[in-house]
């Protein structure tokens, strides 16, 4: 089973990336699961002219095609995102938009999705997660229910080894990852 992980931060040393790397390890601790971080850094800003057959002088960027094909080839998508100004980071919204076209071949359609949000504040990226869920709801993506993962004061949850801590947080996130993988496996069988 192939899982795509999308990091909602472009910064190399971001907390979201550290959480995503640990979540990838959690995914791959399950037999038969291959998880990879799908980079969104180089996706050009979405412009419908790239996908409009009537616009001949703006070919679809190869980055769009590669991203869309990668998402379509996976069995589930796990977003790990921070919160920017009480919503999702611009890079995440851009990735959602790129994967949403062309209308006849949406990469996100019916893909199982999981979301782990965080913030250095106490609310744990609540607003970003809700905004991302709203954007993805259009694509009929099955998702894991309760409990959702909002990691508040996330700067205190990363140890010197760049992994999640304390153990109760690790166990909480591992449970979510396991439930997400079960959803993806069930969806793949169907």
UniProtKB/TrEMBL annotation:
Residue ranges annotated for the NADPH-dependent FMN reductase-like domain, each copy included: 1-154
Record organism: Corynebacterium felinum
Spans traversing the lipid bilayer: none
InterPro entries given in the database record: Flavoprotein-like_sf, FMN_Rdtase-like_dom, NAD(P)H-dep_reductase
Pfam families assigned to the protein according to its UniProt record, in alphabetical order: FMN_red
Protein name according to UniProt: Chromate reductase
